[in-house]
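Rather than argue in generalities, we have chosen a single entry, letters for residues, whole numbers for local backbone shapes, without further comment.
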Amino acid sequence: DYGFFSTLAYNDGSYFQRDFDNWFPNCTGCEVVHRENTTVSFYDLYMPERNLSIIGVRGTHLLVDWIQDID
């Protein structure tokens, strides 16, 4: 199930909460931190009851990402 979390890094934000609630319905007390700048986007999901943190990172997504990958 945690593999689904990595796809949220590619989410444009409009469906994030819906998808998160569908994939993690019993995630009570969970904290999600989103960080984004011009080169990277990631989500950090922290589950306090398990003392577990899952990080989903967006890789190559836009044309500019592909160009930077080639360089």
Summary: Strands lie at 31-36, 41-47, 52-58. The mean pLDDT is 80. Residues 16-23 form the longest helix (8 residues). The radius of gyration is 13 Å.
